[in-house]
């Protein structure tokens, strides 16, 4: 997930950096590391990888939809093996070149190109909301997992990400979920939800929110919609965000969370 429209006018700092680094283009469909304007969204994703990576230690892992590949590369440092599946040829080529420890395969997430019972963990972060047939994908996760395998999934919380809307705010999303809907989807697919965690702003981000009219998220989206230059203070604050500035917890009201993070066990 990224702020849709994060790419600015032709020749903007974001585009120049992307071209200079030969990274994937910033389209709004995936987040990209190393870009100041994208740093908030990258760190909001990174905290989930960091906090759940130990569930992959010494195991055979599939990342279904690895995006730019930075998370799969992090997991590859502790897992026995990491396979990535993505439908985007450019993303597959990019990950193969940049993160060679990740075994990338071109494929459809609704028809995973893996054998039955071939992995211990499926990682699926910020992807399920992009899929048309979410139930079929969850069924495929169950098929490729070994008995007792784990499905680690994150997704934007519909209640806070697209409040009061019948359709998602992000044009790349097909269906967003709240915690109850995500739980229902996983249970129907043969999983037991071990934990449902939420991503929240910690104290440092609360201070940044206060500096930008109460929401640094809204400030970024307003800039993207207007395709306007970044105010210096907003850019500085966004560029300074760290993964540690987010809380990942079940100790706060899940319906107030920014993202949902499910740890589910195949039954």
Task: Summarize the SSE layout with pairings.
Elements: H1 13-21, H2 39-52, E1 60-64, H3 70-76, E2 81-86, H4 89-98, E3 103-106, E4 119-125, H5 134-144, E5 145-156, H6 158-161, H7 179-188, E6 191-201, H8 203-211, H9 216-226, H10 232-239, E7 246-249, E8 259-266
Parallel strand pairs: 1-2, 1-4, 2-3, 4-5
Antiparallel strand pairs: 5-8, 6-7, 6-8
Characterization of the model:
It is a single chain. By secondary structure, the protein is an alpha/beta fold. It is 35% helix and 21% strand. It is built from ten helices and eight strands. The chain has helices at residues 13-21, 39-52, 70-76, 89-98, 134-144, 158-161, 179-188, 203-211, 216-226, 232-239, and strands at 60-64, 81-86, 103-106, 119-125, 145-156, 191-201, 246-249, 259-266. The longest helix has 14 residues, at 39-52. The model is unreliable at 1-22 (pLDDT under 50).
């Amino acid at each position: 997930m990224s702020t849709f429209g994060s790419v600015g006018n032709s020749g903007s700092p974001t585009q120049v950096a992307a071209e200079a680094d030969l990274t994937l283009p910033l389209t709004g469909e995936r987040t990209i590391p190393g870009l100041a304007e994208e740093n908030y969204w990258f760190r909001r994703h990174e905290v989930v990888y960091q906090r759940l990576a130990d569930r992959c230690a010494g195991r055979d892992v599939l990342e279904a939809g690895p995006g730019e590949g930075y998370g799969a590369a992090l997991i590859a440092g502790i897992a026995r093996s990491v396979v990535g599946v993505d439908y985007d040829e450019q993303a597959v080529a990019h990950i193969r070149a940049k993160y060679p420890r990740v075994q990338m395969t071109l494929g459809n997430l609704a028809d995973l190109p893996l054998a039955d019972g071939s992995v211990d963990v499926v990682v699926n972060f910020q992807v399920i909301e992009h899929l048309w047939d979410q139930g079929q994908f969850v069924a495929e996760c169950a098929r490729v997992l070994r008995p007792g395998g784990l499905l680690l999934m994150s997704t934007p919380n519909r209640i806070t990400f697209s409040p009061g809307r019948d359709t998602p705010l992000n044009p790349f999303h097909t269906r967003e979920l709240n915690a109850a809907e995500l739980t229902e989807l996983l249970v129907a697919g043969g999983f037991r939800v071990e934990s449902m965690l939420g991503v929240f702003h910690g104290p440092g981000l609360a201070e940044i929110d206060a500096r930008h009219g109460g929401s640094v998220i809204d400030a970024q989206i307003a800039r993207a919609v207007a395709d306007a230059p970044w105010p210096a203070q907003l850019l500085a604050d966004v560029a300074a965000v760290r993964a540690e500035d987010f809380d990942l917890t079940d100790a706060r009201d899940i319906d107030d969370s920014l993202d949902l993070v499910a740890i589910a066990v195949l039954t």
